[in-house]
Design brief:
- The complex is a heterodimer of chains A (about 425) and B (about 250).
- With about 425 residues, chain A is of the alpha/beta class.
- Chain A has helices spanning about 5-15, 20-35, 95-100, 105-110, 115, 130-140, 370-380, 385-400, 405-420; strands spanning about 80-85, 90, 100-105, 145-150, 160-165, 170, 175-180, 185-190, 200, 205-210, 215-225, 230-240, 245-250, 255-265, 270-280, 285-295, 300-310, 315-320, 330-340, 345-355, 360-370.
- Chain A folds into two domains: about 5-265, no CATH class; about 370-420, no CATH class.
- In chain A, strands 3, 4, 6, 7, 9, 10, 12, 14, 16, 18 and 20 form an eleven-stranded mixed beta sheet that branches. A ten-stranded mixed beta sheet of chain A has the order 2-1-5-8-11-13-15-17-19-21.
- The radius of gyration of chain A is 21 Å and the shape is globular.
- By secondary structure, chain B is of the alpha/beta class.
- Chain B contains eight helices and twelve strands.
- Chain B is globular, with a radius of gyration of 18 Å.
- Chain B has one domain (about 5-255): 3-Layer(aba) Sandwich (Rossmann fold).
- A six-stranded mixed beta sheet of chain B has the order 6-9-10-3-11-12, sandwiched between helices.
- Classes of the chains: A alpha/beta (about 425), B alpha/beta (about 250).
- The interface between A and B is medium-sized, with 24 and 30 residues.
- Bound molecules: adenosine-5'-diphosphate and magnesium ion.
- Adenosine-5'-diphosphate binds near residues 13, 36, 38, 39 and 54 of chain B.
């Protein structure tokens, strides 16, 4: 069954959305109908293989069926749990609510905090980017609004957990985070589902806005089942003197096409973009990253590390763009891939677009098997090959995972990797 | 019969024969020095003994504790009681020394992640490690750093000997552990090795210089030139080497 105008209306009603948002959905749906599927002629989509994906076979949303969402995260300051496409349920530390922190299902946030949402929603992740971004904007189902007012600091992380339990549907959560001036906090998005027979269309997109001097850590942990086709855009808008630390951890789904982007809009702004991916069996992941230095004196630091097993394939393409007026900027980009089988294939494509010369810019890419000298060293100490291999891969990821800005996510990612490497 | 028996060992690297029939006998309780100029095949010998995949055994045999070890994987050789201190210890990112040492020790104990009673307790680990941290003048914080990452040349070599102390091998091959060390580090390393010396440990100490032999007195000295052992004897061989250099064997191997 193809997506229709009626499905748009139905979702808007299900979430009791205000008219302006309903109108946005309609416009996005028009874009969706107008746009063709991306073609292989387009460089970004050249290596992307989504055959087997039939957009007109999905139901527009998933009725929650009561299955359990992820395990609770110790000591979280706030949790939003969402099942299927229904609005999430929120638990927020009342002290934070008293300080003006807003943590709501996105549709409710749009209704109650129009001033926060209207001008930002889909301004960084634009519906006309491609057909998948359009369908996400037209049919996004649930998601989160988090607003942290100026100078509010939150010790413990906030958490969004999205659980899907049925195949055959579109499950398209969207996270909107607004950090006021000098706000400080961490956020974890966790996307979960069992592996099912029927394919699902999923996302897990995020728009994150950092006001002056804000410091925000964001971790997206993607554990969709192996039936999922994921299209996600995670983009952070970094204001003056603000620091964004964004970690993308991609482990699940049969197919994932993910963009991770930093839009550096204020001098002194800094974006750390980190990625971890582990692909096995016939998984296919494609990452496109952008470090967009729109103004000078901005810093970006990107490291994506992936390991591949079996017949998995991954693509990494990263662009550093430094605008004409963006002097004294500093950009670093690296992509490292470990091939754990002969059949696995990783492509790595770094790109630079530098219009200003008064900048520092370094990038590098590697693709290769485990260093046999590393294996020998561990083996020479009595460590069996399989154990040594696992340690080396864990160590390889550890360099990134150890830098995840909060303990709960660090532990979750470490456990998840351990289980999958096992 | 010696505990480690190397017979007519021939080894090639990338199609080139490097070891041209090496025979040595080393038993527990003995310290043997193997000396030779650069490129004579000393590291080839040491790496081959532990089964480095880059070295191809073309002939001969190696028995350790009566067992033919050339068919064994490097990790099995280690668990059998062989140890190699690398000439050039490598950095392994993301794995802490602590994790490395514990996992290695657990592997030696036969702990495979299941039977907890076989795993080494934190207390036991400490009692093994701490005295040698002190002897080797290694700061405790090194244990939480990644394997050899950011270690100076001397620190890497001392960390090798720490690993040896933890694993308590029956036969240790030390490949130029003294090279690149300042005199203080040589003293620390020698002190640690002398502490481990005893009837349960054999040492094959590969070195380029006679300097370390002032601190660790060998029972036997062998001279290796161009892939062959050209002379074997007692400590007096080292003295002669000290006076006359390697040139005296140049003729024989040409
Ligand atoms: N991994 C290797 N690849 C290529 N050549 C090697 C390798 N290891 C050793 N060789 C060669 O074998 C010879 C002996 O080297 P080596 O065993 O390292 O000597 P030593 O340790 O006595 O200095 C040298 O000519 C060296 O170039
Ligand atoms: Mg050598």
């Amino acid at each position: 069954m193809p997506f229709t105008k009626e499905s748009v209306e139905e979702i808007a009603s299900l979430h009791e959305e205000p008219d302006w948002l309903r109108k946005r959905r309609r416009e996005a749906f028009e874009v969706y109908e107008r746009l063709a599927l991306p073609s292989k002629i387009d460089e970004e989509w050249r290596r992307v293989d989504f055959k087997g994906l039939k957009l007109d076979e999905f139901r527009a949303f998933e009725e929650p069926n009561g299955a359990a969402p992820g395990v609770p995260i110790d000591g979280a300051a706030g949790v939003l749990r969402q099942r299927g496409s229904a609005p999430g349920k929120v638990d927020l530390d009342p002290e934070l609510a008293a300080k003006g922190v807003v943590f709501l299902p996105l549709s409710q946030g749009a209704k109650e905090h129009r001033e926060l949402v209207e001008k930002r929603l889909f301004s960084e992740v634009r519906p006309d980017r491609d057909k998948f971004a359009a369908v996400h904007a037209a049919l996004f189902s649930g998601g989160t609004l988090l607003y942290v007012p100026d100078f509010v600091e939150i010790e413990q992380p906030l958490v969004g957990q999205y659980w899907s339990s049925g195949g055959g549907a579109a499950v398209l959560p969207h996270t909107l985070i607004v950090a006021g001036k000098g706000a400080k906090f961490n956020y974890l998005d966790e996307f979960l589902s069992p592996s099912l027979d029927q394919p699902a269309l999923t996302s897990g997109s995020a728009e994150i806005f950092l006001g002056e001097g804000a410091q925000v850590g964001y971790v997206a942990l993607q554990k969709w089942g192996r039936h999922a086709y994921q299209f996600a855009n995670q983009r952070v808008h970094v204001g003056k003197e603000a620091t964004a630390r964004l970690f993308n951890v991609t482990l699940g789904a049969r197919f994932a096409k993910v963009r991770v982007e930093a839009n550096l809009q204020g001098p002194g702004g800094m974006a750390e973009l980190k990625g971890i991916y582990f692909a096995s069996d016939d998984q296919f992941f494609d990452f496109h990253t952008l470090q967009d230095h729109q103004v000078g004196q901005t810093t970006s630091d990107l490291l994506f590390k992936g390991a591949l097993r079996d017949t998995a394939r991954t693509v990494y393409a990263g662009l550093i763009r430094i605008e004409k007026d963006s002097a004294r900027s500093d950009a670093y980009q690296a992509n490292r891939n470990l091939l754990l089988s002969k059949q696995a294939k990783a492509y790595s494509i770094p790109m630079l677009e530098i219009i200003n010369n008064d900048v520092r810019c370094t990038h590098g890419a590697t693709v290769g098997p485990i260093d046999p000298e590393h294996l020998f060293y561990l083996a020479s100490r009595g460590i069996p090959k399989a154990v040594a291999q696992r340690m080396i891969v864990q160590g390889f990821f550890g360099e990134v995972a150890d830098r995840i800005p909060f303990e709960q996510a660090r532990r979750l990612v470490a456990e998840e990797l351990e289980a999958r490497l096992g | 019969m010696a505990d480690l028996e190397i017979r007519d060992l021939r080894v090639s690297v990338e199609g080139r024969e490097i070891l041209k029939g090496v025979s040595l006998d080393v038993s527990k309780g003995e310290v043997h020095a193997v000396m030779g100029p650069n490129g004579s095949g000393k590291s080839t010998l040491s790496q081959t003994l532990l089964g480095h995949p880059g070295y191809k055994v073309e002939g001969g045999r190696v028995r350790f504790k009566g067992q033919d070890i050339l068919e064994l994987t490097p990790d099995a050789r280690s668990r059998l009681g062989l140890f190699l201190a690398l000439q050039y210890p490598i950095v392994v990112p993301g794995i802490t020394m602590n994790n490395f040492l514990r996992t290695a020790l657990n592997a030696h104990r036969g702990y495979d992640g299941k039977d907890k009673s076989k795993s080494v307790s934190p207390k036991e680990f400490r009692t093994l490690v701490e005295p040698y941290l002190e002897t080797l003048r290694i700061d405790r914080t090194f244990l939480s750093r990644y394997i050899n990452e950011g270690f100076s040349g001397g620190e890497k070599k001392r960390a090798e000997i720490l690993q040896m102390a933890v694993l308590q091998p029956e036969m240790a091959v030390l490949d130029e552990t003294d090279s690149g060390l300042d005199i203080d580090s040589i003293k620390y390393v020698s002190e640690a090795i002398n502490k481990m010396r005893g009837p349960e440990l054999g040492v094959l100490m590969i070195t380029h210089y006679t300097r370390i032999l002032q601190f660790i007195k060998p029972d036997y000295v062998h001279v290796m030139v161009a892939g062959q052992v050209v002379e074997s004897g007692g400590a007096e061989v080292a003295d002669r080497l000290e006076r006359e250099g390697y040139a005296q064997w140049g003729e024989e191997v040409a």
